[in-house]
Specification:
Length: 243
């Protein structure tokens, strides 16, 4: 028997996924259903058409845009923290960060939209991948007006451009800020630092000199059941090999 028959939420998610596939597959969209969520991946060139349909058509009616954010997928799924070999107390050094970031040039960045349908009591994530050289997607302000500041934030932090935005400028960083701080190749100490210069009687910007770049690994607890079980299994395997 289908497990969805016993889970109304899973049934609703499956129905939403099926409706999305039927409606948008011809537009080059893909649908993923995992972890009690549905995600629609839309080509940037079709984003406005897809978004308009998601807002207006009866099967969807996503009247509200909850959030727009950017994502940098370089080194996605990789880690730089030595969690299993870190010491039990204090802090340990991070792993070597000299390796180049690995990513798909056509899918390094993505603009992600979180939608809510009050009418149909359902939620949806829409993702539009953009390439490294021209990270541009059309602005959805004409569909959901609330996207204004959300898109400015994604531009400020990730450098994603929203074509058609009426006032695409930084919203969180300072006026003279250089770069986009949420990109994974952005240095943790930044490029410039600011201080007040009493001789000039104003705030000035200078290349960073007072901060030494370093990476620390947070302390990792070792006394919970997961690690105890792993150590017990490892010891048992070693005993068996010695026998």
């Amino acid at each position: 028997m289908n497990d969805n028959a016993h889970n109304p939420m899973q049934t609703r998610l499956a129905e939403l996924a099926e409706n999305l596939i039927e409606r948008f597959a011809d537009l080059g969209c893909e649908v993923d259903q995992a972890h009690a969520e549905v995600t629609l991946v839309a080509p940037p060139g079709k984003l406005l058409e897809v978004a308009t349909a998601l807002r207006d058509e009866d099967d969807f009616l996503f009247e509200e845009l909850i959030d727009v954010c950017g994502v940098d997928y370089s080194a996605y799924g990789m880690t730089e923290w030595q969690t299993r070999s870190a010491p039990n107390s204090g802090f340990g050094r991070g792993v070597d960060r000299s390796k180049e970031l690995e990513f798909d040039e056509e899918k390094r960045f993505a603009a992600v939209y979180h939608l809510l349908s009050v009418s149909n009591n359902q939620r949806l994530r829409v993702r539009a991948y953009v390439n490294t050289e021209r990270p541009i997607v059309p602005s959805v302000i004409g569909i959901w007006r609330v996207a204004d500041w959300f898109e400015r934030e994604a531009f400020d932090l990730y450098g994603i451009l929203f074509d058609g935005h009426p006032d695409l400028r930084r919203i969180l960083t300072d006026y003279g800020f250089i770069g986009h701080p949420f990109r994974k190749d952005f240095p943790l100490i930044g490029h410039v630092e600011m201080r007040y210069d009493p001789e000039q009687a104003r705030v000035i910007y200078e290349p960073v000199s007072s901060v030494e770049p370093r990476t620390l690994v947070p302390r990792v607890a070792r006394d919970d059941n997961r690690y105890a079980r792993e150590e017990s299994q490892q010891q048992a395997a070693e005993d068996a090999s010695d026998a």
